[in-house]
């Protein structure tokens, strides 16, 4: 395990982690028609958390996450499978993309869809499984 | 809209995800395990009913029409295999309650079990050959993790062989897929069948067919690349071994049945002749390997290989009777193999060993267990009135009608040797006196109670009852196999159902 306590690393990590998470959400949302999507966004987000782990150690990362990464992966998988089901309400075959266009005050019309739900599921699954792997490895080394 | 064909895949996926979500709450995971596999069985039965009534059930996922999207398609063979998957899933889930070590449960036994079942049903129900590859990988990942849970030395050794050979097979499969797509521009199996039939490149097609044959042959555990199977199947906890023994290699056999009846029938004299030789050699090497072993699970592992030979023989002969017999053999063998593994697990629970020299006296103290062993064991050897007899009779009659005397002789010889290897287990583990050096015999003698034991007996008893039922009341099961064989030999209905009319 890397020695925690490098001032430059820890300072930069505090700055970078929020940016990386924000960027990952951006990647996630633009992924439907442009390069990006749940998988790559999940990797970006987990890279942020892994940097945090290098800077502050396993215990601090677990405290930051609050929930077990395995549960994040489980929630992601559940969401991805459930995204197959909205199509049934409209009488389409499973996994058929469904689009909704609700209008919100101030923001205006936004586009929601079942593929977005699937992508969020992938996003969470990737974060969860990446962090499960890295944290287990880091724990084994400590 | 045909939800019936998607449900057997979506259910285990969802349950796997939920079990992962509940990874701290083992009780909940166990409930999800038993109820979920029960629901899978019910869903698969519903699918079989739909298929029996309406013919091939097709679902274009995401409403992307064939041949562009991924199609799920269930014919009688696929749906029956899904039913067997549900049945075995339920049996192993119940058995797992009593036998799976706590550490394994904490490290994901239940989510992996569901994922494995999802991979298996996915492979049985997909109508797209690349999707078949994906389900193979899902299955491989889940089975690799299940195989190494616990991390014992023997497990690692077995797992390395298992993974290496399976990756090799996946690589060949993937290369074959690349060539297929390059040649025909489609990966939908029904579309492929139509295009292959119209193609005029027999040499290239035979190469392609051989690649698929090798890839699926490795997964099925056929001669000559079978040694990964007996090296790894006996290493995990017995419930997992049983599931592997029952299902995994059968997915390879199923794929051979699908591909070599639907797509590659351009030169039956060439491809199916190779299959016939492979079948004979698989039978013989399997049973000879079994005779050399002294550990129950390893004996049964080699018997799995030997049985794969009979299934391939049915396919290789390529007549309605032989195909029906081969499929009935697949179905009954799945149940037989899992029951044998589960019985071995009970013997281990009672005497603490799988090795023949450490076992003995089981029949004296547990006559019921003796009967429950004899039913699947004699069915394996092909004695009437058990399910194995009916299936073997059909396959061998198919061979005699085709005047294939060589394979008939090998099949009968293998049956005899199988009987001998079964008698060895019976004589040593059940019939003779308890060895003097057996120390921990309190549970066996009934001096100490084992509260989990009935959970182990229950699935064994139900499965053994099923073997007996198929043997005694064979007509509906054989009728099903014959109908499935009819569908395989006349794939036009399948092709029409998948590509068919534009849906509303």
UniProtKB/TrEMBL annotation, chain B:
<keyword id="KW-0812">Transmembrane</keyword>
<keyword id="KW-0472">Membrane</keyword>
<feature type="transmembrane region" description="Helical">
    <location>
        <begin position="454"/>
        <end position="474"/>
    </location>
</feature>
<keyword id="KW-1133">Transmembrane helix</keyword>
<dbReference type="Pfam" id="PF00361">
    <property type="entry name" value="Proton_antipo_M"/>
</dbReference>
<feature type="transmembrane region" description="Helical">
    <location>
        <begin position="274"/>
        <end position="292"/>
    </location>
</feature>
<feature type="domain" description="NADH:quinone oxidoreductase/Mrp antiporter transmembrane">
    <location>
        <begin position="128"/>
        <end position="418"/>
    </location>
</feature>
<keyword id="KW-1003">Cell membrane</keyword>
<dbReference type="InterPro" id="IPR050586">
    <property type="entry name" value="CPA3_Na-H_Antiporter_D"/>
</dbReference>
<feature type="transmembrane region" description="Helical">
    <location>
        <begin position="236"/>
        <end position="254"/>
    </location>
</feature>
<feature type="transmembrane region" description="Helical">
    <location>
        <begin position="68"/>
        <end position="95"/>
    </location>
</feature>
<feature type="transmembrane region" description="Helical">
    <location>
        <begin position="403"/>
        <end position="423"/>
    </location>
</feature>
<feature type="transmembrane region" description="Helical">
    <location>
        <begin position="204"/>
        <end position="229"/>
    </location>
</feature>
<dbReference type="InterPro" id="IPR001750">
    <property type="entry name" value="ND/Mrp_TM"/>
</dbReference>
<feature type="transmembrane region" description="Helical">
    <location>
        <begin position="6"/>
        <end position="23"/>
    </location>
</feature>
<feature type="transmembrane region" description="Helical">
    <location>
        <begin position="368"/>
        <end position="391"/>
    </location>
</feature>
<feature type="transmembrane region" description="Helical">
    <location>
        <begin position="30"/>
        <end position="48"/>
    </location>
</feature>
<feature type="transmembrane region" description="Helical">
    <location>
        <begin position="304"/>
        <end position="328"/>
    </location>
</feature>
<feature type="transmembrane region" description="Helical">
    <location>
        <begin position="162"/>
        <end position="184"/>
    </location>
</feature>
<feature type="transmembrane region" description="Helical">
    <location>
        <begin position="132"/>
        <end position="150"/>
    </location>
</feature>
<feature type="transmembrane region" description="Helical">
    <location>
        <begin position="334"/>
        <end position="356"/>
    </location>
</feature>
<comment type="similarity">
    <text>Belongs to the CPA3 antiporters (TC 2.A.63) subunit D family.</text>
</comment>
<protein>
    <submittedName>
        <fullName>Na+/H+ antiporter subunit D</fullName>
    </submittedName>
</protein>
<feature type="transmembrane region" description="Helical">
    <location>
        <begin position="107"/>
        <end position="126"/>
    </location>
</feature>
<dbReference type="InterPro" id="IPR003918">
    <property type="entry name" value="NADH_UbQ_OxRdtase"/>
</dbReference>
